[in-house]
Model the fold of this input.
Amino acid sequence: MLPLLYTATTAYFTTLRLRTYLHAFQQEEYDNPRFLKWYAEKRAFDRYATLGLLIGLPFAYLQPQATYLIIAFWLAYRIRKEPDPTTSGKKSLVLTTRASHIWWCASAFPLFAIGFLSVGNENPLLALLGTIVLIQSLPLFLTLANTLLRPIQAIQNKKYLRQAEAVLAQLKPTTIGITGSFGKTSTKYILNHILASQSPTLATPGSVNTPLGIARIIREQLNQSHQYFISEMGAYAPGSIARLCRLTPPQISCITAVGMAHYERFKSLETVAKTKFEIAEATLKNGGICILNADGIPDDLWKPRVEANPTAYRLVTTRVELLRENDYHLENVNQSATGLTLTIRHHGQSTTFSAPVYGMVQSGNLAVAFAMAQELGLSPKSIASAMATVKPAPYRLNIQHNGTVTTIDDSYNANPAGLTTALETLTLIANANPSEPRRRILLTPGMVELGAAHDTEHTRLGHIAAQHADVILVVNPQRIPTFTDAINADNHPALYTFPSLAAARQWLATHSAPHDVILIANDLPDRYESRWSL
Done:
């Protein structure tokens, strides 16, 4: 009876704990090495279940037959404490088909060990020690399940991709590709708004920019009424965008920027540029053109490529000396508390328009969207009219008013240029009425995936933050020590640190004052929280 109780309780506990680890595994995109690196860096091993079993070891030694009861009792208690990652966390676990298959496959592996420890083992003390080892090994079972299921997943993925390709080939919308180190989601939302004002348009939602994500949108939402399909293309390694272009061959495309976002993965800006320009190569093969935000890409990275095929590119730039006959000149940009006003000149005609979006970096996104819409045949007048009602992409410099408190939600904008712009916007909004400046509060955990530039970039941004924020709340400060060091070096009087976003929000709930302007700059996924207490 006791071994049976042990078997049921331990099996249930390991299944729940595997789901907890699956939460981080999903956020690491089911990448085994990245998940194991996260596990090691966060020391996300089990603490409390193991500690309780070790405390019970002397009692089990004195009364071996009670060992199974001790294990079952303690694990039953820990089951009640195990959080449900499908309903908790900043980004909850989504039990997709792939996630569910990995979870159930991984859950099957412990059953063999549990069966041996309860039935095939005559030493109860070995059962206790074996249970500890089993619990600590659970992350490895996830990676093993992922590896074993990979061939099946590949077959399933190929099926989904072929279905999406068939739908796209049958419906034949004008396919538009958008990529860039940053700004691609904002540009997609702006362009989607402009095109949708004229014709039915479908764009990948949110930050969906992977093959399976794009394929799902095509399979489930694209229909014969859509004249345009906008595909945001993300890059995680060289070849990523080329694969996406085979799925959704672009007839026109753009590159919004080449910068240090995901720098850790690429190691050099040249590698980033080579990967981003895969979208241009695919577009050119289809006889289309690629629009470049020349001010967002280092000159040495775009000039050789444009010079090799000058008619295939359109530049969007503020620099007169770069302009060619068909390029777009961003003549003037003004920012106010109501948004941005731009003047763009093309083929001798200047068009001025205003858009209720913030941040000077957004001027490049607006200009690129303007150029793409005009290349697709829309008139400058109709584009300008649509710009007046455009909305920023969710969680990207969204201005929210809650009574007298203003919140700038920039939680998805996680790159150095974006954070700089967000800080400038914080000061702009707070000082909109110079006679009554408002207190400026910054809440941020910093940035990730900057590779070798992590420390230097955070040092630079720490000094900028000290200039633009009266109160600075830093989440998980041990991850970005150079950021807090730079703030302290500038003798900033109000720097506070917190172990988690929840703790920082609690401080805001009790310490924010009327008329504060609060910038939430980058909200890192749960896997970056300072500690996983299991």
User: Anything to note?
Assistant: The chain has a mean pLDDT of 90. The radius of gyration is 27 Å. The longest strand covers residues 328-336. The chain has 21 helices and 15 strands.
